[in-house]
Write a structure and sequence with these properties.
The chain contains seven helices and two strands. The chain is mainly alpha-helical.
């Protein structure tokens, strides 16, 4: 048995997903220096493009990072003129995030590079296989989300208790 087939026979879903995610992150780092963005910054812009007007707290939850970590990314992106903070109309403590016109060409490059990368990493899979893979991953994500929901629901009261 070759080393490749032996390692494939020992592969598990979790390890494969982790390896693929790590390799995608590394690919971004090595192939996109002309963007002038870190992967974390690109993720902020991509998620913001789908959720303009979102609060910093809600965006940190989507990105699964601490609000202070997101704050640093937002500061850098705002300084670069790629996003802006606006006061929330009904909550003076909250700020909403919006992309600036300057971010649009950069986002177009990110989307184009992502589409090219997807074509490269899915080489050898026909259209049906690609569709099935995406659908399967969406189902797995949904299953995991449902599995986590009870734990999150139980933890919610502890997070919302007033401080003494």
């Amino acid at each position: 048995m070759s080393d490749a087939s032996q390692s494939n026979s020992n592969a598990t879903f979790g390890f494969l997903v982790s390896d693929v995610a790590r390799m995608l992150r590394e690919n971004f780092r090595t192939t996109t220096p002309e963007l002038g963005l870190t992967l974390a910054q690109a993720r902020v812009l991509l998620h913001l493009s789908r959720n303009e007007g979102i609060s910093q707290v809600a965006l940190s939850a989507i990105l699964e990072i601490q609000p202070i970590t997101l704050l640093r990314q937002i500061d850098r992106l705002e300084k670069a003129g790629l996003l802006e903070r606006r006061a929330h109309p009904s909550d003076r403590r909250a700020q909403q995030l919006y992309l600036t016109p300057r971010s649009q060409p950069l986002l177009q490059k990110i989307f184009a590079m992502s589409a090219d990368l997807q074509d490269q990493v899915m080489a050898g899979l026909n259209k049906t296989e690609r569709t099935q893979l995406i659908a399967s991953l969406i189902r797995i994500k949904s299953n995991l989300s449902q599995m986590m929901s009870p734990a999150l629901d139980e933890a919610a009261p502890a997070r919302t208790k007033p401080r003494r």
